[in-house]
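Here is a typical protein record:
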Amino acid sequence: MNRLRQHIEEISPITDEEFEVIKTFFTLKNVRKNQFLLHEGDEVKFEYLVLKGIYKVFYLDENGKEHIVQFAKKNWWMTDYTGFFTQTYATMFVECLADGEVLCLTLEGREKLSSEFHKMEHFFRVKLTNGYVALQQRIRLLLSSTPQQRYEEFSKLYPDLMLQIPKKYIAEYLGVSRETLSRLYSNTK
C-alpha cells in the first residue's frame, strides 16, 4: 500500500491518519499474463490502478477485429469508464499482457473518498483531467496524422512500452498493419 500512498502524494499530500482510512477502500489483486480483468458484457465493478504489469483496454468491432483504446502501465488507471461511471455493462475488455498487480476501487468507494477527503477529490480530478487530455491528443493524432507521425509520437511518449508490448498490439493501437509498423520501425533506425 506504500505505492498507493506515493501515487496519491504525487498530487495531494496526506497524513498517516488519512491514509489509514483511504487504503481501506482499495483491494489488491494479482493478475496473470493473458488474464482478463474485464470482458465485454460484464458488470463494471472496479476502476484499476496499475501497480505492476502492462494491460490493454480494447473492444471488438462487429467483424471481430480488435481495436486497442489504451495501454496501461504502472501508476496508470484503467477500466471501461463508460460502464464504470454509468454503472452499466462493459463494451470493452481489459487484458493483462505481463504478470501484474492492480488495486481495485469501486465507484461507491471513489465517491465516498471524494466526499470525505477534499484531497482525494482533488487527486481524482487531476487524474481524470490528465486522462481526458491524453485521450483528446490520441484522437487528434488518429484523425489528422500520418502513420509515421503516430508512430513517432507513440515512441517518443512511451519508449518503455515500445520494448515491452508485442509489435502486433502497437500496430493495432496506431491503426496500422503489422507490415506498416515494421516499415515505420525500419525508417527510424
Notes: The two ends are 41 Å apart (CA to CA). Residues 2-115 form a domain with the Jelly Rolls fold (CATH 2.60.120.10).
